[in-house]
Design goal:
Two copies of one chain form a homodimer.
Chain A lengths: L6 E5 L6 E6 L2 H12 L5 E6 L2 H15 L4 E6 L8 H13 L7 E6 L1 H13 L5 E6 L2 H7 L7 E3 L2 E5 L7 E5 L8 H18 L1 H16 L2 H20 L14 H10 L9 H18 L5 H14 L15 H10 L3 E2 L2 E7 L5 E7 L1 H12 L2
Parallel strand pairs in A: 2-9, 3-4, 3-5, 5-6, 6-9
Antiparallel strand pairs in A: 1-2, 7-8, 10-11, 11-12
Helix pairs in contact in A: 1-2, 3-4, 5-6, 5-8, 6-7, 6-8, 6-10, 7-8, 9-10, 9-12, 10-11, 12-13
């Protein structure tokens, strides 16, 4: 039975708390699960041109079978959709469908769609119901948990958005079979991240079982559920990112800077790959600052190599800006507090911490060494 | 002493609670009041081309004297500024000033600027600090209290926005002397509204003392403070407008429809005037539905006439759409719940209530009668 294999992770946020269901066949059950929690709603489904042909008919059929009328809003695929222009388009189409505050916006797609649709749901009528149906591994383990939404601007990634918790997340692990190897690997970087932050046993599990996670089956469901649990615990402690939640940014400060440096060109670097390189750099930088053993950095690098993820700046194809320019991207990243550089560093595998007042000069000389490759 | 005349209204919203200061000379004290509550911040001041020449230099000087560096963002005046385009402009300029999450966005202006700047503060870095310096009577008694922000779209007014509570509101009653008579009167409609909702003694006070409220002095401070107190009490009971807060929409369902019908052309009808006509219509419609005495409707109309506010649809200059079209505007207004029309109706002066399931046919025939004038 498909239902037997469904795991439920509860995100404990009081009256904003919600369930994440993880398992097989959830797309087909979406209508019933939503109708049980939000009786009588109508829906807008925000999705993209890649996901729509694969999953939209099944999702609409599932909703209609549960009596939920749904208006599809299909946007272009890719990071560039996280813009003011497409936010406005999504908002206009939700309003044109005459949805009310009690109706639901469903995000069916990867992180881009989740971030954009969640932002739209958060601002139409000052907040509608929101449900996530994440279709990428990255979205299932990261962006669908925690309520952060947003768009990019010329000043940087994710600098504009709201906190908008979903009412339900349906992570159908079967839909991941339609992803390319590269997409799956990129999402896997975030899975490994949870082990590296504070779950050393989980990282060891992944070192042993990553092939089965990639292949599908119980190890995949277990790894996704453990990732959601890890993120949900941090989010429950710190919903609005005033403290501990910053740990989730492991690898993201370097990663975002590299994404910006490549002009968010997904053919060169996608988000998860940036995070992979960023995690390797964070561990290597921690070793350089005598916070952790170089052996731990080497272990992280070895695992990234094993699964086929990039781990060095030189793994990125094409030209990159110099170290000074990269530091500028880091300084404009949102994880800056009153001018001091804040990084997630580590004392070893699963022992990350928030390092404030990291000297820019140390980061600069570190970047100079690593831009050589 | 100016300080002696300052009234403080506390908005009780737990950790999102804040003070509204009402009185003379508050613009000159803005820097000190903000620095006392938000030490070490930098600021962006969002204002408009009308307000900037009158008040911006004094506000910047006050901030600088308190050690707060401020970047002014001056937008065109008028309702059309409440758009996606100007939201994006404000957001871009706040980011260009490199303000961080702990810095502050100050809205110095009327309701348009407050709604737009509050929306921007709510979405830049997923929520910055926000301070209101309302410069119109309408903004002092209405939009600066309660945390609603938003913009207009082709689908209607205020359909897109967030709830973003300010950290502080500084209502300098002296700045109201720079308003035109028409602007002051439009704001006064909202003052009278609080009496009509649930404060019959306050409405009687206004009937006796409205001339002194218009002239300035203690009656003005008292009326503004009572209005803020009235709104703050409703907001504290129902921050996210799931119940009682809808009472504040007295006059607004008809009013918004009339504003939409005039294409938001302020030369024909400004918001407060729409609310004035809307309140008169709500009382007259309540009488027609045998909920209240026609004498109460007549008393409301007489007060609006006395202060020089419009009270009939025929007081609006120019052509208006027919009753069916107006009903269409009402149906698209955000105070619609699952297709049923919701209005704020009354059982008498100060006895308003939320009427759900008002038959559209009754509204339509009522509008037909009143469009004749």
């Amino acid at each position: 039975m498909a239902a037997e294999r469904t795991e439920t992770v509860k995100v404990a946020l009081g009256e904003r708390g919600y369930d994440i269901l993880i398992g097989h066949g959830l797309l087909a059950r979406a209508g019933a699960e939503i109708a049980a929690r939000l009786p009588g709603v109508r829906a807008a489904i925000v999705t993209d041109e890649n996901v729509a042909p694969r999953h939209l008919p099944a999702l609409i059929a599932s909703l209609e079978a549960a009596g939920i009328a749904a208006t599809p809003i299909v946007l272009p695929a890719g990071e560039k959709t996280k813009s003011f222009a497409f936010l406005q388009e999504a908002v206009d189409k939700i309003l044109a469908a005459r949805l009310e505050r009690g109706d639901v916006v469903i995000a069916a797609g990867g992180g881009v769609i989740g971030d954009l649709a969640g932002f739209a749901a958060g601002i139409v009528r000052r907040g509608m119901n929101f449900v996530q149906v994440p279709t990428s591994l990255l979205a299932q383990v990261d962006s669908s948990v925690g309520g952060k939404t947003g768009i990019n601007t010329a000043h940087g990634k994710n600098l504009v958005g709201v906190f908008q918790q979903p009412r339900l997340v349906l992570a159908d692990t079967d839909v991941l079979d339609t992803l390319s190897e590269r997409e799956f690997r990129a999402g896997y970087a975030e899975v490994a991240k949870y082990g590296l932050i504070d779950r050393p046993e989980f990282f060891a599990f992944l070192e042993r079982n990553w092939r089965e996670v990639f292949a599908g089956g119980p190890a995949r469901v277990a790894a996704i559920a453990e990732s959601c649990r890890a993120k949900a615990e941090v989010v429950a402690r710190d919903e609005f990112e005033t403290g501990d939640r910053a740990l989730l940014n492991l690898g993201h400060t370097f990663g975002h800077a590299l994404e910006a440096a490549t002009g968010y060109d997904g053919s060169r670097l996608v988000h998860g790959e940036g995070v992979a390189i960023g995690m390797a750099l964070a561990h290597r930088f921690s070793a350089r600052m005598n916070l952790a053993s170089p052996d731990d950095a080497a272990r992280v690098e070895a695992h990234l190599v094993a699964v086929g993820l990039p781990w060095r700046v030189s793994d990125i194809p094409g030209e990159l800006p110099d170290a000074e320019r990269l530091l500028g991207y880091i300084a404009q990243d949102k994880k800056v507090s009153r001018g001091a550089l804040t990084f997630i560093l580590t004392r070893g595998i699963g022992r990350c911490f928030i390092a404030r007042d990291v000297p820019a000069s140390e980061v600069l000389s570190f970047l100079r060494e690593h831009l050589g490759g």
